[in-house]
Structures are given as C-alpha cells and as structure tokens.
Amino acid sequence: MNVEFINPFIASLTNVLKTMAQTELKPGKPKKKSDTIAHGDVSGMIGLVGESIQGSLSITFEESLALEIMHRMLGEKPTEIDDDVSDMVGEIANMVCGGAKLALAEHGHEFGMATPIVVSGKNHSINHLVDGPKMIMPFTHECGTAYLEICFNK
Amino acid sequence: MNVEFINPFIASLTNVLKTMAQTELKPGKPKKKSDTIAHGDVSGMIGLVGESIQGSLSITFEESLALEIMHRMLGEKPTEIDDDVSDMVGEIANMVCGGAKLALAEHGHEFGMATPIVVSGKNHSINHLVDGPKMIMPFTHECGTAYLEICFNK
User: Fold this and answer.
1) Could you give the CA distance from residue B126 to residue A40 in angstroms, rounded to a whole number?
2) What are the boundaries of the signal sequence (chains A, B) (predicted)?
3) Could you tell me the CA-to-CA distances from B96 to B45, B62, B83 in Å, in that order?
4) In B1-82, alpha helices (H)
5) Domain spans of chain B?
6) What is the value of ipTM here, to two decimals?
7) What residue of B is the nearest CA neighbor of A88?
8) Under CATH, which number does the domain A3-152 receive?
C-alpha cells in the first residue's frame, strides 16, 4: 500500500474533525499493523469494494475523545457512549471515507463504499482480515486518542 | 428487505457451521432490528457493495459459543478469544456471505464483498447505519447464542 493511497484518508480525517467539530487532532506516525492493536471504546467501520480491490477502514475513538467531539459537533455532552454518539461516529467514518474516495478517484483509484457499522464496547480491539498490508495511525488530542486503520488487498 | 434476500444468508450460516464445525444452530425468529440489540463478545463484519445497493452483514458470537466452534473446527479450545478465534470468526463471516452471494447472484442480485473486520471485546454492541430495514436473527445452541444481522439500503 503506497503513500498515494494512504494520504487522502489522513487528510480527510483531520479535515472532517477540524471543520465539523473544531477539533485539531495531532497525526502520529503511520505504521504497518502487526502487533500494534487499536483499543478503543467506539469504532466506525466501512467496507470498500472496487473492480479489482477490496479493503476496509476503521476509526476507533477512546470514549473521552468521542464525547468531546460530540460536544463540539452537536453541543450535547452525554456521559457515556449512547446511540447518538454511535451515529456520529458512523457519520464521521462515512465523511472521512467519502472525502478520501473523491480524492482517490481523481488519481484513477475507484471503489465503492458499504454502509457504516459502528461497534460500541469498552476497550474492544479490531482485526482487519485482509491479504495485504494494514496501516494503523494514531491521532492524539488532549481528550484522548483515535486510531485510523486502512487496509487493501493490493 | 424481502425474504428472498434474507433466506440465503440464513441457509448459508446454518450450512457453514454444520459442515465446517459439526454444529447445529437453531434459528430463531428474524426480526426487524429496532430496539433489539445484539450483544456478544466477538463479531465478524463484512461490507456489501453493488451497482445500486449498499449494505452490511455481521455475525456476533457469545464467547462460549465461539470457543466451542473453534474446538469443533480446529480441535483446539483456547480459554478466551485470541487471534486464532478472531481469524476463525472472520472466515465464518466470509464463507456465510460468499455462500449467500452465490445464491443471490442466481436470482440476479449481484454485489461485491469487502474484506472482513473482526471486533473482539466483552459484551460489545453493533449499530448498522443504513437508510433501510435491518434484520436481526438469533441462532441458539447449548453453548451460547449467535446473532446474524443483515441490512441493505433498499
């Protein structure tokens, strides 16, 4: 998986959170995921299907960060992850993926997006089953950490 | 979402577990998911993308049932959900979805499958974000319960 493929997702995530939630996330170093595991409390996931590629994307938030983003985006601050937070995380995943999809289409990489799935549960972990490289990248904020994971079978 | 669309997934799940793990699951009643939430410990998820449809599938297992299936499929019985169990659950989701895809293609319903994502975490819950009906169906076994969820935006 090359940088040309990854960068639009990174740019899209920072852009979506900046414009929608006035939240500046500090990008960490992208790593090939091997032993590194994203643990978080709420994750938005989207399946990706193209003519010749398949893949998946996930964005995992620690609870404290998800609640802060909820507060900044919608003005409410629930005390725990509820249906509204879950919906928001799914929408963020959708916007991030949609932004990257547009940018990648300009370079001839076309794929379709499945509908988002959101998982809520204290300290869950995610395993992308793909026959190809997996990229994981932390994004830090004073309220907590988010992890972006992308993988494609090419 | 009509029965013609749902039945191949139900048949494929019971068939995969019967042939691969000698495990007979008892299908419960399919319901439109509204308040009904699948809680489980390990879930295999796959995004679905067709020309005019998008959707998602998940199969959620209680830990006790996942470990028993692992024992029957591979002869090992880990004491908790580890990477091998996670991989197995992803493969089951892949086989179930692949079987249903073949059956549906015969009726002119074509879609592509994303790569599976597996989430592990005690008692997590799943929220499929789709603008359309969501179907949830329990499958019971003496070792625990599995939940199949399917949704499409049409």
Assistant:
1) 14
2) none
3) 11, 18, 20
4) 3-21, 63-74
5) 3-152
6) 0.91
7) B129
8) 3.40.1550.10
DSSP A107: T
Measured between CA atoms, how close is A50 to chain B, in angstroms? 8
Residue-wise over A24-54: b if at least 16 C-beta within 10 A, else e?
Answer: ebeeeebeebeeeebebbbbbbbbbbbeebb
Q: b or e along A124-145 (b: 16 or more beta carbons within 10 Å of the residue's beta carbon)? A: bbbbbbbeebbbbbbbebebbb
Residue B1 pLDDT? 59
Q: Which residue of A has its CA nearest to B45?
A: A117
- Locate B3 and state its tokens: 């029965």
pLDDT confidence of residue A36: 59
CA pair distance A120, A114, nearest whole angstrom: 19
The residue-averaged pLDDT of A89-107 equals: 95
Query: In whole angstroms, what is the distance from residue B32 CA to residue B34 CA?
Result: 6
Contact partners, residue A8, CB within 8 Å, separation at least 6 = A99, A100, A103, A104
